[in-house]
Structure prediction request, 223 residues.
Amino acid sequence: MSGSADAAAEEAARIERGRLLFARPVRFFFAAVKLEGLPPAEAPEVAFCGRSNVGKSSIINAIAGHHGLARVSHTPGRTRQLNFFAAGEGTESPLTIVDMPGYGFAQASKAVKAEWQGLMFDYLRGRPTLRRVILLMDARIETKDGDRAAMDLLGEAAVPFQIVLTKSDDTKPASRLEKRQAEMAEIVRKRTAAHPVVLTTSAAKGTGIPELRAALAEIAAGG
Prediction:
């Protein structure tokens, strides 16, 4: 088998492992507003974070194949807690998905923003089972100060993160998306905590969802 055939076969195997991880129902099981209220640290965890209107709930729902799992709100900044979801229950490699409060919400007061940031940092720094943060970035708009602040926070907490672009189906023309992807690649090169692979997704079209599931399956398996 040629090198390209080997690579294709391995990628197909990765995609299948991701599909199998989410073949069973994903279950919401806990919500916490304070660090001392977190559930026991057991399965490997992957936390999703991003701006309040980045489409975080839609991506989590798309991964889980359950459109009503994570609540999709039209009010930015509404999620004020850490929401925990169990994936792959009953398998050898279960995974916990954590939906973090959004950042950059213009309507939230400074006091609330500071409180949320404190919870985020305490969780990031002190959670022993946290393996990676998926940092969602809107493919349609430029990187905001809040995005850079979030990356700084992740770096300070010494937590590895992976950038995932959202809403790629709504990015026109194609050259605009390519420019955004190039921008993300440059950010990754400059951030030591950043995973080298940037994924491009669309919850509406399903673009990149199998690849994201595959990445999560590797983390669940200890990769």
In short: The helical segments are 3-21, 56-64, 110-126, 145-156, 174-190, 209-220. Confidence is low (pLDDT under 50) at residues 73-78. The radius of gyration is 17 Å.
